[in-house]
Amino acid sequence: MWAVYAFLAALFAALTSIFAKIGIENVNSNLATAIRTVIVILMAWSIVFATGRHAEISNITQKSWIFLILSGIATGISWLFYFRALQLGDVSRVVPIDKFSVVITMVLSFIILGEAVNAKTIIGGILITAGTFVLIF
Question: How far is CA 64 from CA 61, 108, 111, 121, 132, in A?
Answer without folding.
Answer: 5, 19, 20, 28, 33
